[in-house]
Each structure stands twice: as structure tokens, then as C-alpha cells.
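Predict the 3D structure for this chain.
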Amino acid sequence: TGEIIWRTKDLPDPASYSAAISAEIGGKRQLVVLTGASLAGINPEDGTVLWRADRAGKSFVVATPIVADNQIFVTSADVGCQLFTVTESGGSFTAAESYKSLKLKNDWGGAIKVGDHVYGDNGATFVAIDFKSGEMSTRARMIGECGVCYADGHLYLQNPDGVVALVEAKPDAITEKGRFTQPEAAGKKVYAVPTVANGRLYLRALDTLVAYDIKKS
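Done. Predicted structure below.
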């Protein structure tokens, strides 16, 4: 019917560009939301706020949170990255910051967890950091700020100028395997994350969507 089922009343935060994700934490399904002022867990059944941790973003907050068990990794350009640990006791939840670091300050392209490490751009450089400690494992100059996705042992990157790079994902070395510039992105700014599905690489540039066959022959 389109009627509102519930509306969260206890989260009057400024909005962000980050997408809410569904995760099971402490045995309870919840929506993990990164706003312009905090990180929070919301009950998807009635919209109540299960827990909240202050986390003010000084500029755009775009990247989607990364959840692994009861730990949540978040990042944005000015604040850097943080890991929060959510604890459940007697049906109640609390969240506490485990670390804060400026070693991964992601603007818009997001970060991705592969194994025990998180990969993403830190502006001019592309970095790998340890998920649990926040320590940097390696870094390399790639294509600047970029969207990132992962498939079959490789990272696919695309920057706002349409440059696409294939990168081998290893904690001790970031190795570029090749690159090209998406022709449809000429004269446009690309702020869409690459997507790989069913052997195809999907790239979007404002009003254009293209697919490349990347299956092994």
C-alpha cells in the first residue's frame, strides 16, 4: 500500500550517503546505519534504536559499513576510519570504539574486506589495513580516489575520470595487473562503484551502463 510501517524517532541525525545494511549481531538481525553524526543499529521490525555510537563526519559520509561478527568498520574522508565493537548483554546492546586511524580516509568509493584486511583508497594512494588493529599492511599509488569491488582474487577500481584498473589483492603487496579508460566516461565524472556478476564487469557513467565480458576463455 505504500503506507509507512515505522519511523525511527530516536535518531535525529543528519543524513549521509551511506547505505544501510542488514546484519546479525549478538544473535539479533538489525540494520546498521552510518549517518552524518553516528553509527547505529536499528531493529528492522519496529524501527527502535538498539545502540548508537557518536561518529561525526566533517564532510561527505558515503562508504557502506563493513560488518564482521560483532565488529563494524567505517570510514570517511576527513574523519578517517574506525572500528566499533558491539556487545550484547541481557538483550541490550552497547557499542564502543576499538580504534581510530587516519590510514584509510575514504571519500566516496567505499572500502572492501578481503580476508583479514580492508582495501580502499586514501585519496592519492590505495591501501590495505588490518581489519582488527587498523595497522597499515601496504600501500601503492594507483588511480587516485576510486570505487572498488572484489571478485576472484582481484580488485576492480574505477576513478572519476573513467580509468579502470585490475589489482591483485594481497595484504603484503598491491599489484596492478592492467588498466583502461572507459570510453563512455569521456567528459563525465564517474562516481559509481564497479560491479562484477556472472562473469561480467558492469560500469556506469551518469546516463550510460556498459558490461564487459571478463570470463576466462
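The chain has a mean pLDDT of 94.
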